[in-house]
Amino acid sequence: MVMGAALFLAAGWGVAEITSLHSRGLILTTTPGLAPLAAVLGAGLLLGILLAVPGISPLATGLPGLVLLGWSALLVVSARRATRLIPLPGHSFAAGFGSMLTSGVLVLVGAVMVVPLFVPSRWRRRYADDDYADEPSEFGLMRLPPGPAREAGAGRRGATAGTSTRGRLVGAGELLGLGRAG
User: Fold this and answer.
1) Residues 138 and 60 in one domain
2) Directed axis angle between helix 92-103 and helix 12-23, to 10°?
3) CB of 159 within 8 A of CB of 174?
4) Higher confidence at residue 162 or residue 103?
5) DSSP classification of residue 116
């Protein structure tokens, strides 16, 4: 949602203003050119952060990316319908977004945005150090810390506070002190 808004509002406005500056013969390093340049760079930076940070859901970029790819496919099938669907016609950010759509920039951005959907590690849950030490794993097994702390009863519920979750997985019998399940 945030990425879609950033592309439409910030990048769309920035592209429209940059196009306007270019038609007037001004360059981006002039004072009027810095704000549109910052808007486009800000949208690009947000996209880069959402793509690169592993803790962010792949849906944050994947869903807007799928929308951009679908919109670009609609442009190929029916250009008039695709451009008519651009919201808030008459505003500068809508004109810039339309310019990015018709030039093919959005199909490229959309293709990049869907890449995290195909990275399996982005879909896995990450555990904090101690927050989930006494909860079952996805296999119904409990995590015991490695080393001598296990023999001292660290596997019993409540005794795992302050231990690492990087231990081996054990069954319920071993967790209750009935011996190692094998």
Assistant:
1) no
2) 90
3) no
4) 103
5) G
